[in-house]
Amino acid sequence: MSPDHRAFASSLVDEHLGPRLEAAGNPAGLREAAVDLAAAAFAGDADGLMRAQLRHLLHPSSSRLPDAYLADEAVAEDVLQRAAAGLRSALARAGTLVDARSFERAAAARLRDDPRLAVRAELARVPRPLTRPKPLRWSIEPAPWAGGRGPDDDPWPPAGVDAVAAMRCLPDGAAALARVDDGPRAGWTQIGMIERHQTPARRYPDRPARQVLIAVGLEVTDTEPPADSLPFAWSPWQLWTLPWRRLDPTGDADTVAHQLATGTWPAVALTDGGWTDPNYERTGLGSPPYVLAPVLAVVAALELEPTRGVCGFSLSDGDGPGLVCRQWRGHLVHDGNYQPLTPAVEGADLLVRPDLFARLRDTAGDARIHTGFSVNHRTGGEAAADED
């Protein structure tokens, strides 16, 4: 076995499996076993398969990996499953006997990919909505710089960015939040929105990678939120799939009500599903860049539960769906080379039913509601790093 195969296998395991091994508590010997199996695979057929895939899928003049499930990812998943299958036997040989069913179930939950996020994200996809606060109307045109063919028609940064770049909250409090004009959610209020406009570096006409990121979220506070912060909290994406009491068994309705009436809190969370989380590999192929959710206190205060049946991201009460997260992506662009087209715009928003929004305003108090806001633009190496 070549030392090169083992070095590649080690980097492969760290890249594709590292976060999942950490989440499982790094079981003794599991990483080493996975590296051994991966090295053996690439000393055999996997190396040739990888080269054949790249030869067929990659243009000779391109330096970007194709958007495909390649042999390195397949090998990483295979070796993890094969190595993990012997965990309980290894424990038994070391003198530790465990209940087989509970141990296997717990180990699988910690190590497996979870495809439900990708499936729900696909079910939540809609044509790109134009719902956004009025000061963000300039962002309706997707990546306007993408169509320019020279410096004279290359609007970078987009018109409108500079006018709002220094703002942390939009004026007019809750009144600044956008409302849906038509469709099945007409009249609902958009309490959260995140959208990324991004183009890759191009060789012709020569242009660096560029990105604009916009974030809007309802926040409750007696003072303006701190500068240079996103208007979001951080929560698990399972808020969409599990009753809130399972996520916080110690939660109490009276405590939640007091917190909402007196505390400082964002109403919207950027979840740990998708590319925003360093452990996103655990959520499986097809994960969206962003998944928004209400914070747990809002779910509890509005007495919402995950919507039953096949659906995207939806929470309901006795009157039906009351909070939903929509997903969108589109407006394909290319890098002037032979790479597959990539979406220039990807985003998500969080909508609340009118009667629930009224309850939320009554609980928090209109004077304490802010429309939090953040916008930034990047170019060159910074934008390209985000794309990777």
Question: Would you write up a description of this structure?
Answer:
With 388 residues, this protein is an alpha+beta fold. It has two domains: 3-112, no CATH class; 121-387, no CATH class. The chain has 13 helices and twelve strands. The chain has helices spanning 3-23, 30-43, 45-57, 71-84, 87-93, 100-111, 116-123, 161-164, 244-247, 253-262, 296-301, 354-364, 381-387, and strands spanning 169-170, 189-199, 210-220, 233-235, 265-266, 268-271, 292-294, 305-306, 313-317, 320-333, 342-352, 369-379. The strands form two sheets. Strands 1, 2, 3, 5, 8, 9, 10, 11 and 12 form a nine-stranded antiparallel sheet that branches. Strands 4-6-7 form a three-stranded mixed sheet. The protein is globular. The two termini are 31 Å apart.
Structural class from helices and strands? Answer: alpha+beta
What overall form do the CA principal axes indicate? globular
Number of helices: 13
Rg, please? Answer: 24 Å
What percentage of residues falls in helices of 4 or more residues?
A: 25-40%
- Please report which band the strand proportion falls in: under 5%, 5-15%, 15-25%, 25-35%, 35-45% or over 45%: 15-25%
Low-confidence stretches: 277-283, 384-388
> Could you tell me how far the N terminus lies from the C terminus, measured between alpha carbons in angstroms?
31 Å
Helix and strand sequence: HHHHHHHHEEEEHHEEEHEEEEHEH
Question: What's the count of strands?
Answer: 12
What's the pLDDT, averaged over the residues? 82
- How many structural domains? 2
Characterize the largest beta sheet: strand count, sense, and whether it forms a barrel. 9 strands, antiparallel
